[in-house]
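Dear colleague,

As promised, here are the two records you asked about, laid out in our usual form so they can be pasted straight into your sheet.

NAME FIELD: protein one
SEQUENCE, THEN STRUCTURE:
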Amino acid sequence: MTVIEVAAGLIHRDGRYLIARRKAGVHLAGYWEFPGGKREAGETLEECLQRELREELNVRVDIPVPYRIVRHEYPEKVVELHFFRCVIESGEAEALECAELRWVLPEEFSQFEFPPADGVILEALQRDARMESR
């Protein structure tokens, strides 16, 4: 089965993370996710993330810092998600390629439906937030 490499941005501001709701008619429509997209031939994962965030949100981010890699097998494909921490350098996030955007606290993640592959990241970010608040 083909492995699809995806770069996703953990965009952080004032204790909140930016999440995006997937448009109708796409794989996992209606689910919330961390913005990003598929890597194209010839680009690094960092370049992929920076391009995707420009296209989807109209923002420029700083140099993405690797956070975690999650491999998830769906019935029809295998996705390898590369999560990066990053901060918006310029622009204000707009929902260009998604249905909706929200800035949420880690403890609010459970109020949103995320794809199964994101579970380990949601738990890690919640754990990080608890550690930082001590």
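NAME FIELD: protein two
SEQUENCE, THEN STRUCTURE:
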Amino acid sequence: MSLNNESVVVVAGAGGGAGGALVRALTAAGATVIGIDTTIEHAERAAAVAVGPGRAVPAVVDLLDFEATKAFAEGVVKEHGRVDGLVHLVGGWRGSKSFAETRLEDWDLLHKLLIQTTQHTSLAFAEPLAASGDGRFVLVSATAAAAPTAGNAAYGAAKAAAEAWTLALADSFTKGGDQAAAVVLVVKALLTDAMKEAKPEGTFPGYTHVDDLAAEIVKVWDSPAAEVNGTRVRLAP
């Protein structure tokens, strides 16, 4: 099925650069969106661009706290009756000039932001997504996961780990016979209108505009779960 006015989609990291574009695209497709961020101001900023009154609900959840994330998932199901999607937009980047200058403190941070939040959201929402009848878990990853550079060791490794975790979730959907899918969308980097305005002469080669990413995420529901489950779709050239 495609998204419709009964669909409920949770967006983790809704206050980030891609959050507003995704909230706009999901609500335009008819879905109700619960947008999570670390502050109510960030979550409300994303919710404000929703298409249709009341179609986006801002929420604050500490995704590094698994029990809090699990309780939140249970609350969404109790209030809305279902969860048809979880889109993971939680990001973060740390890098160095060379491999030798890599800071292990950067790994500790990226492990939390990129891996633990993926673990917690997927574990908390796996059952509701499986019960949806057409649930989707979407992880936005980066080309660095498969082709890390010398100064990108921590970031590339964290993205690769999050991808592996997501594909394990996909396998669980297959083995459980569920009509649900876990999908990885890969970008080099994301581009926003604000970035273009700040650097009008920039060409941003290989970047994916957040509106294009949002459109691709919405399309994940247009194909049967079995066709997209476990796929890694590269959006970067």
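A couple of things worth noting about protein two: The CA atoms of residues 24 and 49 lie 6 Å apart. The first strand starts at residue 8 and ends at 12.

Best,
R.
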